[in-house]
Hints:
single chain, alpha/beta, Rossmann fold, 7-stranded parallel β-sheet, 10 helices
Amino acid sequence: MTRALITGITGFAGSHLAELLLSRGFEVFGTARHRSDLTNVRHILKDIKLIEADITDLASIRGAFNIAKPDYVFHLAAQSYVPQSWKAPHHTLTDNILGTCNILEAARDYPNVIIQVAGSSEEYGFVKEDEVPIKETNPLRPLSPYGVSKVASDLLCMQYFKSYGTKVIVTRAFNHSGPRRTGVFVDSNFAKQLVEIEKGIKEPVLYVGNLEAQRDFSDVRDVVRAYLLAVEKGIPGEVYNICSGNGITIKDMLDKLIKFAGVKLEIRQDPERMRPSDVLVLRGNCSKFKEQTGWKPEIEYDQTLKDMLEYWRKNT
Length: 316
């Protein structure tokens, strides 16, 4: 039985990845802190093996490797909320850079393990008009502490690959959503607000930030399939974009959600939701990954939005 270790297994993408791996017959281990919320994995707790570990503590990560003895490692644990990275840059940089370093260090004792490290489209940051759709070779000009932390993690992966032959593959996933997405992220937050309005929990006013930004959304269930294909068919030392290749403005996404929810409301801009610097356009090109692995998105974004609305209707 193939053994997989997922850091951040209790999170959004981690829980969906765990479900996928279990369905493929994997033995699934995952790291969690003693204070981790287990809601996302409660339905599969009997099928996975949780290991108490903190990615910022090398000894505990080495312990997790020694328990799991993994064939594959999926490093998803991170401080992943971009606005929070301005409020707590030190925390973001420590968790994301040191966490990746500790995974790579622990892997030195397991030379055959293949590691997928979750990068981000936020690494591209300031993208010029003639650089869209964005390829992996595009310059990295991050516009947030979160983006900086992911660029540094990318560089660490390349260094460990070159220095020690670590079999590490970096995936730069663009925006991905779906059921269980935390309510602080833009489309899930809108879906949550709409459900609260539907249920009369809040007044019919929906608060927004910058609606003009354009993003490339995929369904998380497609993205975790890509993570698995990355370790099965990807080339160590390479970086791969994972995206739909389609751009949609936040306004157009909101219009879709309002149509699906069928509620009447007022839209108000909330200054607290505006970022000090925002990435205007993130639309990716993932032809490199498709050619290497045969992956392609299967779930339409409209379905993703409908599934998020249903998730919040059941959990609000």
